[in-house]
């Protein structure tokens, strides 16, 4: 369950996080830039105090957005806001840094015991390859969290992630899995028709089919909502499974629905590509 909010402590976000824990969510996803670490920390403390969960029941992810070389200090700040001794899974939010130095800093965070595992977000193949090739790289990123849905399938990136690091691989985690519903670039197109047909067959919503399409390909899904009824609905994703043919039909329809069959490029990736281009331009000017 992803938590986002405004600059100030928002009791609505605290209550949403508590509701998510009560209905069964155990993976809680926040970030420095979301500015919800304080709210999540309050929610976790109150749920522990009420005896609903223990700390070890929860899997807490946060993301470092800037100054990667100061990862240890940044994690200290996040831990203070969260009120925790460790975070289960800190991520580098994007590849706009000296990747090998940044990853060395993340390894130091894990070595300090302040993180159980470490990963990245919005990395493309070249960024993962550069990170893995670092002379100080000893730990393979556990996960790369990316925007992933039938319009953005990242086939080469997913293939590289599964096969890299001498077969150890990097798991793929999906945000934006429901974008074919919430930000549909081709309403009424082949993907809409395919998702609707499959949803009716299983007696579930189109959004749940989008989630299941990810899960049945071994991709971890993170989602967000402030509404209890939706949180409960999303957990129904474990009540059914797609066939291999259904997964393929959705994948094919996603590509067919796009101009020239070219996948959309995530906004986060566009942003980091623009930063890299500007950096190269400054070198040559």
TrEMBL record:
Keyword Disulfide bond among record annotations: no
Residues of the NADP-dependent oxidoreductase domain: 11-252
Superkingdom of origin: Eukaryota
Keywords assigned by UniProt, alphabetized: Oxidoreductase
InterPro entries per record: AKR, Aldo/ket_reductase_CS, NAD(P)_OxRdtase_dom_sf, NADP_OxRdtase_dom
Site (Lowers pKa of active site Tyr): residue numbering on this chain: 63
Residue positions of the active site: 34
The protein's name in its UniProt record: NADP-dependent oxidoreductase domain-containing protein
Organism: Cytospora schulzeri
Lineage: Eukaryota, Fungi, Dikarya, Ascomycota, Pezizomycotina
């Amino acid at each position: 369950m992803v938590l986002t909010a405004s600059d100030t402590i928002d009791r609505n976000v605290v209550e949403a996080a508590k509701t998510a824990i009560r209905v069964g969510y155990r993976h809680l996803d926040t970030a420095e830039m979301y500015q919800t670490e304080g709210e999540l920390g309050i929610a976790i403390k109150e749920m522990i105090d009420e005896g609903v969960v223990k700390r070890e029941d929860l899997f807490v992810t946060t993301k470092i957005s800037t100054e990667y070389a100061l990862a240890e200090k940044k994690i200290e700040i996040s831990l203070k806001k969260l009120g925790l001794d460790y975070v289960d899974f800190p991520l580098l939010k994007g590849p706009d840094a000296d990747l090998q130095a940044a990853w060395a800093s993340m390894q130091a965070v894990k070595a300090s015991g302040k993180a159980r595992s470490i990963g990245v977000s919005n990395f493309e193949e070249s960024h993962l390859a550069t990170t893995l090739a670092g002379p100080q790289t000893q730990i393979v990123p556990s996960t790369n969290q990316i925007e992933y849905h039938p319009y953005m399938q990242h086939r080469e990136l997913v293939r590289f992630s599964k096969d890299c690091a001498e077969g150890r691989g990097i798991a793929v985690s999906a945000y934006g899995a429901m974008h074919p519903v919430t930000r549909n670039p081709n309403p009424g197109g082949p993907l809409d028709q395919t998702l609707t047909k499959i949803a009716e067959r299983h007696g579930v919503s189109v959004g749940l089919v989008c989630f299941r399409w990810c899960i049945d390909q071994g991709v971890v899904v993170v989602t967000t909502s402030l509404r209890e009824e939706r949180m409960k609905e999303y957990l129904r994703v474990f009540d059914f499974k797609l066939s291999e043919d259904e997964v393929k039909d959705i994948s094919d329809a996603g590509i067919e629905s796009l101009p020239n069959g070219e996948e959309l490029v995530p906004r986060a990736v566009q942003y980091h590509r623009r930063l890299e281009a500007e950096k190269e331009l400054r070198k040559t000017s």
